[in-house]
Design brief:
Helix content is 35%, strand content 18%. With 316 residues, it is of the alpha/beta class. Helix 2 (45-54) runs parallel beside helix 3 (67-81) and helix 4 crosses helix 5 (132-146).
Length: 316
């Protein structure tokens, strides 16, 4: 969107993932984009990111990352030169699975919503709410499918589940699961590092998760399915539980009832709602969060407006 709006761009990739951005810049040169239009600055956020936030020549910052760092960047943008800023921050996206859904599809997409890219996905379903009458069946089917997942080399097309990005994140996931067990959630499967070389973490499922628990409120950014049940037919209660978070990036619903789908999608406090699917974004559809998941849009025509300025010229 930044380039499409006619700007040059400086990209500061995450410190632990610099290579894709550098490869992208290489491809832009091969595609004929002039030198200096796309610029990559790898490095730490505290040094490179801070310098960009403070720099008087930068007029717009778009940031994807944690809410904590987003707040810091927003403050720096204000104090430096009142930079325009858009933020795509943390998420704890609820996925509500009603008893009247297509259960096999809900299992398949529920798995994808959590385990896609090893859970390292900003819109991953952070918490699943499953209606009582299908809860046990849903859990049983998901466990069966998890046991079929092939863990291994992510460059092998037969692999379903690769390693986490780095060791510190792997350790964070281990501690996250320990929190869940200590607070009384039921660890159905997974919860620990795979006993093989590399930063592999087992696909994990928790049930009996209550609203006050750490794992019910905090984002894992890993392959951890957090399941809570809700009473049959109690749509408004599950909605209030799904909305009881300061995050509002994405959400999902599985139901065959179109009226229920429309009602729930209207009431969910999230910038994106998936109905009977998940992770299905489109370049034409605006994407961005509510509340402390940030503001501003990527994708769609709305994204262009983040990188444009409107000027009025009046003649007489």
């Amino acid at each position: 969107a930044c380039l499409a709006a006619g700007n040059t761009v400086v990209i500061k990739p995450a410190q632990v993932t610099p290579l894709t951005a550098l490869k992208f810049a290489e491809l832009t040169l091969k595609a004929g984009i002039p030198k200096g239009v796309v610029n990559i600055l790898p490095g730490s956020g505290s040094l490179i990111g801070q310098r960009l936030s403070d720099h008087p020549d930068v007029r717009k910052i778009g940031f994807t990352g944690s809410t904590e760092v987003g707040k810091h960047i927003m403050k720096s943008c204000a104090l430096s030169n009142v930079k325009k800023v858009s933020l795509e921050l943390g998420g704890k996206s609820p996925l509500i699975i009603f008893a009247d859904c297509d259960l096999s599809k809900a299992v398949q997409m529920g798995m994808s919503s959590v385990f896609f890219n090893k859970g390292e996905n900003c819109i991953a379903a952070g918490r699943l709410f499953v209606e009582d009458s299908i809860h046990d069946q849903f859990v049983r089917k998901v466990v069966e499918e998890v046991k079929k997942m092939k863990i291994g080399n992510p460059l092998d097309r037969d692999t379903n589940h690769g390693p986490q990005n780095h060791q510190a994140h792997l350790q964070k996931l281990v501690e996250y699961c320990q929190h869940g067990v200590e607070e009384g959630a039921t660890l159905v499967c997974g919860g620990k590092q795979v006993s093989r070389p590399g930063f592999f973490f087992e696909p994990t499922i928790f049930t009996d998760v209550e609203d006050h628990m750490f794992i019910a409120k905090e984002e894992s950014f890993g392959p951890i399915m957090v399941i809570s049940r809700f009473a049959d037919g109690d749509v408004d209660t599950v909605l209030s539980r799904a909305n009881a978070t300061e995050f509002g990036l994405a959400s999902g619903i599985f139901t065959k009832d179109i009226n229920k789908a429309l009602y729930v999608s209207d009431k969910l406090e999230a910038g994106t709602v998936f109905v009977n699917t998940y992770n299905k974004t489109d370049v034409a559809a605006p994407f961005g969060g509510f509340k402390q998941s940030g503001f501003g849009k990527d994708l769609g025509e709305a994204a262009l407006n983040e990188y444009l300025r409107v000027k009025t010229v009046t003649f007489e």
